[in-house]
Write a structure and sequence with these properties.
- The protein is an alpha/beta fold.
- It has 3 domains: 108 residues, Methylthiotransferase, N-terminal domain (Rossmann fold), CATH 3.40.50; 224 residues, pyruvate-formate lyase- activating enzyme (Alpha-Beta Horseshoe); 53 residues, OB fold (Dihydrolipoamide Acetyltransferase, E2P) (Beta Barrel).
- The protein is 33% helix and 23% strand.
- The chain contains 12 helices and 19 strands.
- The strands form 5 sheets. Strands 2-1-3-4-5 form a 5-stranded parallel β-sheet, sandwiched between helices. A 5-stranded mixed β-barrel has the order 15-16-17-19-18.
- Helix 1 links the parallel strand 1 and strand 2.
- The N and C termini lie far apart (50 Å).
- The relative contact order is 0.08.
């Protein structure tokens, strides 16, 4: 029985697609693993969201070869879709791109495949191999936003939604051990049913299954009274909203081709907190976007402080050839690093403030590290819990204590 090691870089969509490939391979008699170890075949599912991600994708080839110099190495994903030539001198047997990843099974058995045309409709040929605790379900692919810094719409293609029937079939097939479903996609906000916004309707149907429901991310443009009040009526929705901000300065947002102003973003946050007072609202921020002045960065810092996010994902702007922003003069990396450090400090302050607002929570226990059971509250606070009982894959009520590592210490509530 041959062993296939599938290494995934980048987003949760890539992870879902890798897990789907693993399921297909196991059904055909292969052993599929997702941690770097000796194997007969390596599949590297690459990322191209930043230049660093592409570099890591190339470096992964050498890391795999160290475990078995004679192994076959197959490349797929965004980095090869963007630039196939960067892998041709890397002793890689086969290269494919974003589309048709399931064809890699045919490649393993029969030979080469070329980069496929990006599809115009959702490729519904994947169902992921799931863990026993949380299931990621992909509902959408591609993006129509064309933010000026982002290469993904050019690599993933236009937005296309999976059918409601297919999503519900996968969700209903999940075993009782799965306690939480996370909906993922390149732009989940753009999920449609018959050409109309369909995310709330999908969540309403999934809510009937009795599992916790979580969104991987959300765009401000979908936030409305109807949508948020609808979420508040669900029994199992986890109030964690990852709203991508990118900049807290209107002039920078305009250059980024984002579709909202800071005033509109703040109004959305206030609407969410109207229905979910303790919602965990997290965000992405890009520092050092071309032309970002000290004054524009200061506006971003002040806005983040005003919104009081629960946490931040901070990225230094990465030049991506082929994007509109790539034609603009880049800032010095030292400036980007200084601004990143400034927001890192603010992030720590905001996390402390958010945690202090929370006294209790319901935690889905994911693992035991030998000392603590760990998991996340519904609003995404990581909890470390000591217990003599086996708590893995249980949902427990806890009292939230002091800060600890990347989360908090918590005790089972009595």
């Amino acid at each position: 029985m041959k062993k296939v090691c599938i290494m995934t870089l980048g987003c949760k969509v890539n992870k879902y697609e890798s897990d789907s490939l693993a399921k297909i391979l196991e059904d055909k008699g292969y052993t599929a693993v997702d941690s770097l170890q000796s194997a007969d075949i390596f599949v590297i599912n690459t990322c191209a969201v930043t230049a660093e991600a592409e570099k890591k994708s190339r470096q992964m080839i050498a890391r795999c070869k160290k475990f078995n110099p004679n192994a076959r190495v197959l490349i797929c994903g965004c980095a090869s879709q963007k630039n196939i030539d960067q892998f041709k001198e890397k002793d890689v047997e086969v290269v494919t791109g974003v589309a048709g990843k399931t064809k890699l099974v045919e490649v393993i058995e029969n030979g080469n495949v070329d980069i496929s045309e990006l599809p115009l409709v959702y490729e519904d040929d994947m169902t992921a191999k799931q863990s026993r605790i949380r299931a990621y379900i992909k509902i959408q692919d591609g993006c129509n936003n064309f933010c000026s810094y982002c290469i993904i719409p050019y690599l993933r293609g236009r937005s296309r939604s999976r059918s409601m029937t297919s999503i519900m079939e996968e969700a209903k097939a999940l075993g009782d051990d799965i306690k939480e479903i996370v909906l993922t996609g390149i732009n989940v906000t753009d999920f449609k049913i018959d050409g109309k916004p369909g995310l709330l309707k999908l969540l309403q149907e999934l809510d009937k299954l009795g599992k916790r429901l979580r969104l991987s991310s959300l765009e401000e443009t979908l936030v409305s009274e109807e949508f948020i009040s609808g979420l508040a009526e669900l029994k199992n929705f986890c109030p964690h909203f990852h709203l991508s901000l990118q900049s807290g300065c209107d002039s920078v947002l305009k250059r980024m081709n984002r579709k909202y102003t800071t005033a509109e973003f703040l109004a959305s946050v206030e609407l969410i907190r109207k229905y979910f007072p303790l919602a965990g609202i997290t965000t992405d921020v890009i520092v050092g976007f071309p032309g970002e002045s000290d004054e524009e960065f200061e506006l971003t810092r002040q806005f983040i402080e005003k919104v009081k996010f629960a946490s931040l994902h901070i990225f230094k702007y990465s030049h991506r050839s082929g994007t509109v922003a790539s034609k603009l003069p880049d800032l010095d990396d030292k400036i980007k690093s200084q601004r990143s450090d400034t927001l890192d400090c603010l992030k720590a302050e905001l996390m402390n403030e958010f945690i202090q607002l929370n006294k209790t929570g319901k935690v889905l226990i994911e693992e035991f590290d030998g000392e603590f059971y760990t998991g996340y509250t519904e609003n995404y606070i990581k909890c470390y819990i000591e217990s003599q009982k086996d708590l893995v894959n249980q949902i427990v009520e806890v009292d939230i204590g002091e800060r600890f590592k990347d989360g908090v210490l918590a005790k089972i509530a009595h």
